[in-house]
Design goal:
This protein is of the alpha+beta class. The chain has a single domain, classed as Nucleoside Triphosphate Pyrophosphohydrolase (Alpha-Beta Complex). It contains 6 helices and 11 strands. The chain has helices at 16-23, 87-93, 99-117, 134-141, 198-201, 208-222, and strands at residues 32-41, 48-54, 65-66, 69-71, 122-124, 144-146, 152-158, 167-176, 190-196, 230-236, 239-245. Strands 1, 2, 3, 4, 7, 8, 9, 10 and 11 form a 9-stranded mixed sheet that branches. Strands 5-6 form a two-stranded antiparallel sheet.
Length: 248
């Protein structure tokens, strides 16, 4: 495993507004389930990865570059989809959630990718229902169903209690096989959206958590056969822990 000790990562970045918001809370907020996806394109040894910069107006992690992702919504459990999670990813996810919710967590990353970068991760298919969520309805209007094939889980990280917003974030990886880089666009959530190599990413403005998950990603991509567990970062009794999930 690459060095993931606190000294190997950058400094904890918190704005004055973030500190003020956390100080106003009597206790640490309960983490909300979230989903993040790393999309790669090109050769495995040096792929391009989709990232964007959070607006400086955000009250949580402003201005830094991140992968597409966000909170899991109720509608993610009921969307029409195609494909299946791999047996490995399904087993890991269902160690934490019922089957429908496990799929919803992965599907949320597909929806967030569209909302933040305009990229539709879907395949042609007849959608059987309309969706109140405008993002999922965009798939229907395009004649596409979100597709779970090729989406693999590689990490999990729970935001430490010193933050005023906390997420139980699951990190997925999907490699895109298209001949050319897919079209993308900025959004209200992410600016300067682009495809970056690892070397280029390390020069961007990053949060400490993103630096950590980049190292986890590089380790995961080096496996010939990924293990039946994932990296799991969380805090317990005020101590920062780097475990595996499910626990070994």
């Amino acid at each position: 495993m690459k060095d993931l000790s606190p000294n190997s990562l950058g400094e904890i970045r918190m704005t004055d507004k973030e500190r003020k918001n956390r100080k106003a809370l009597a206790r640490a907020p309960r983490p909300k389930i979230a989903s993040t996806i790393v999309l790669t394109h090109g050769v495995k040894e040096n792929p391009r990865i989709l990232m964007g910069q959070r607006s400086k107006k955000h009250d949580f992690m402003p201005s830094v570059y991140v992968f597409p992702g966000g909170r899991v919504d109720r509608g993610d459990s009921y969307v029409d989809y195609q494909g299946d999670l791999s047996p490995r990813t399904q087993t890991i996810m269902e160690a934490a959630f019922p089957p429908r919710k496990a799929r919803a967590v992965a599907l949320a990353s597909v929806r967030e990718t569209y909302e933040e970068t305009s990229l539709l991760l879907g395949t042609p298919g007849t959608v059987l229902r309309n969706h109140k969520d405008p993002s999922w309805d965009a798939f229907r209007q395009a004649g596409l169903k979100p597709n779970l094939n090729g989406i693999e889980v590689f990490g999990r990280a729970i935001t430490p209690p010193h933050r005023h917003k906390r997420f139980d974030a699951w990190f997925f990886l999907k490699h895109l096989e298209t001949e050319t880089l897919p079209d993308i666009a900025d959004s209200a959530e992410l600016l300067n959206v682009g495809w970056f190599t690892f070397d280029e990413i390390w020069e961007l403005e990053l949060q400490r958590a993103t630096q950590m998950m980049l190292k986890v990603l590089q380790q995961y991509m080096a496996y010939d056969r990924p293990p039946s567990h994932i990296f799991f970062s969380h805090a317990k009794y005020g101590k920062f822990l780097m475990d595996t999930f499910p626990s070994q």
